[in-house]
Design a protein that fits this description.
mainly alpha, 14 helices, 5 strands
């Protein structure tokens, strides 16, 4: 524990030194703005272990207040310090460097007059860069021998902290997933194993000539020596599943970015904070949904439904089948405040328990809302992803 604290302090010192050489703040605007600061953020240079280079992102951290920004920044620094400590102390990789964090300051990436302004495409690119770095580090941790339920792996990105403006904590820790003791298996939970099979078998086609049983031995040997042609359909199908996910997720990511931009015109700090929290949860949900679509396979109901959701009515109908009819208005809001979901404490306090309910305590719409809460607030493990694919398959029937 002491070494981890020292490493946190060391990361802060390194980040401060790096900032002294290259200030991780937005450049000063060319003209003086009379408007108050609407959002706060911080710059971070993410260390990429595969290239040993840094990638700076500025458009992925947006907070409604400076204090909230400090909370998010400190939490990310602690998570990064834990990862660096593991690689340096346990794996003896002394060349592994910590991320470099800048101070919290007014976000000028939304100001068109600022040199730091980011377009929607640039911001989306930075979001994808940050997600790619996170997945690379996760892969490196798994290759080092850690399991997917390890604290370092699970908390690479944690749910956003609740703000005092919202009246107390809204999130609960990830439930301990383990075998149910003494619980009966419901017939509704028994699904075909092909639905959860994320790996596609390699199909081998053999084109061998027939040999006459009475033919000489040398002719049979020639026939057996004919080359075998193998064709694999796994790679094309995997690519199709990724395209199905991309066509839906990219559009919805842009939609939620537009909501964040529209919220800048709202003056009520409490409403703006709730909008920001709802958008953060939606981004987390879209990231998890992308993983489930790609993992379910191109022929799954989930990938087929995502690929067919091209028009706006089709998109709303698709998410309504997944998350319930009450999600239609918040999913495609006409006003920024419409994105806020009214809380359902009985459902959202333990969404996995609701989804696994086989006694009829929760109805169909409550289970769909629990699916939204689980994907929006947690990072499912590999085993949970397989189970969630079967749950979603039953919703789409």
């Amino acid at each position: 524990m002491r070494s981890l604290r020292l490493l946190v302090v060391g990361c802060a010192v390194i980040a401060t030194a790096a900032s002294a050489q290259q200030p991780l703040v937005c450049p000063a605007p060319t003209s003086v703005s009379s408007r108050p600061c609407e959002l706060y953020h911080y710059h971070v240079q993410l260390y990429r272990p595969e290239t040993k280079q840094f990638a700076e992102v500025t458009g992925v951290n947006q907070c409604a207040s400076e204090s909230a920004c400090e909370q998010v920044r400190n939490a990310q620094m602690r998570r990064n310090a834990g990862v660096v400590d593991y690689f340096k102390r346990v794996r003896q990789e002394q060349q592994y460097e910590p991320d470099r964090f800048g101070p919290c300051h007014c976000d000028l990436t939304i100001d068109k007059a600022s040199p730091a302004f980011l377009t929607d495409v640039q911001r989306l690119t930075q979001i994808r860069t940050g997600e790619d770095v996170r997945l690379r580090i996760r892969e490196k941790l798994l290759d080092a021998g850690l399991t997917s339920d390890n604290e370092l792996v699970r908390t690479l990105i944690s749910p956003p902290p609740s703000l005092p403006l919202l009246g107390g904590p809204k999130l609960v820790p990830l439930p301990n997933v383990g075998p149910a003791v003494g619980s009966a298996t419901s017939a509704d939970d028994l699904k075909s194993t092909r639905v959860t099979d994320t790996s596609k078998p390699v199909v081998i086609s053999l084109d061998l000539p027939l040999a006459d049983p009475a033919a000489p031995a040398e002719q049979v040997a020639v026939a057996e020596a004919e080359p075998v042609q193998a064709s694999s359909t796994a790679q094309p199908e995997t690519k199709e599943a990724e395209e199905a996910a991309e066509s839906f997720i990219s559009y919805e990511t842009e939609r939620i970015q537009n909501v964040l931009k529209a919220s800048s015109a709202i003056t009520d700090a409490s409403v703006k904070s709730r909008i920001f929290e709802a958008c953060q949860e939606r981004i987390q949900l879209l990231s998890n949904l992308r993983t489930l679509i790609e993992g379910s396979g191109v022929r799954s109901r989930l990938a087929t439904a995502a690929r067919g959701a091209q028009s706006e009515p089709d998109r709303v109908a698709f998410v309504s089948r997944l998350f319930g009819t009450a999600i239609a208005k918040p999913w495609a809001p006409k006003d920024a405040s419409d994105v806020i979901l009214e809380p359902l404490p009985d459902v959202e306090s333990d969404p996995e328990r609701v989804l696994r309910d086989g006694g009829g305590r929760f109805n169909d719409q409550q289970k769909r809302r629990a699916l939204y809460a689980l994907l929006a607030r947690y990072q499912p493990t590999s085993d949970q992803q397989l189970w969630l694919i079967t749950v979603i398959d039953s919703f789409l029937r």
